[in-house]
Amino acid sequence: LPLAVLAQLAVHSDFPPMSHSLQYVYSGTSGIWNLPEFMIVRLVDGEPFVHYDSNSHKMTPLQEWMAKSEGPDYWNTESQVAMSDELAFENNIEVAKQRFNQTGGIHTLQVMYSCEWDDETGVSVYGYDGSDFLTLDLKTMTYVAPVMQAVPTKLNWNSGRAFLEGQKAYHTHICIEWLKKYVSYGKSTLERTVRPEVSLLQKDPSSPVTCHATGFFPKGIVVTWRKDGVDMHSDVEVGETLPNGNQYNTNMYFCCRNKQRSFTSDHVGTNITQVFQTGWDDRLSSYKELSTVVQNEALKLRQSESYFRAR
Predict the structure, then answer these.
(1) The Ig-like domain covers which part of the protein (predicted)?
(2) Which pTM does this prediction carry?
(3) Domain range spanning residue 44?
């Protein structure tokens, strides 16, 4: 078949070794009748692996690797700690409502702590009704209050040096040790590598060219178009990376209005080289895949996810 354009789609990357993160998200609510008043979700690399809510009063595993790694003593202890946190959240929501001069209505309180494997820093953020309430600055080891209603708590916590030292130790050491423990439990799942299935599509010569990368893991993947080895940024739109079960999908669009224009698409985020030879078929008015060469290497990604833990 006569081909007017020959395009090459290459999938490869040059990423640093994979990093890991641990997240705790604590959420308390008031005035939402069909939602548990208190919930905890713990995540490794953005993957939920533990859950607690005020309806069950039990900390439960969400991943098979976590269920196999800990016994009854762990789950009983964690459930007891979570119930104490639940009582604290009930009290803290009432305190916040008083400070904002609120009586009824729907209100939320969230606490988010995070840490990363190779980084002795973290995130500690308290939010109320969708806005920041308190933030811990780990460089200065002081709490910052973006709203006046949080100032009494800021002054109280910043005056307790032992409390602040405990927070520093948690974020720079204790949290990271727990992260390493959890990663060791789920290593075969968390560090699994699934190459993307890649396709290059175009309806007609005046339509945008769409590059689909689907079914890959880990999450991080960056898609770019290249021409003659140079990244192209004009006429390019990159889509979101979205979950697809326990994997991810992403896509990007390139406005290729001149069918004589050749191009290369580089998907950065996996150490995989996947080449598609495709071309415009004038008689069929469609893109046809001619050949595929796939070179599998070890997948390595750096993921920057937050880890959250509430007191």
Answers:
(1) 196-255
(2) 0.70
(3) 21-189
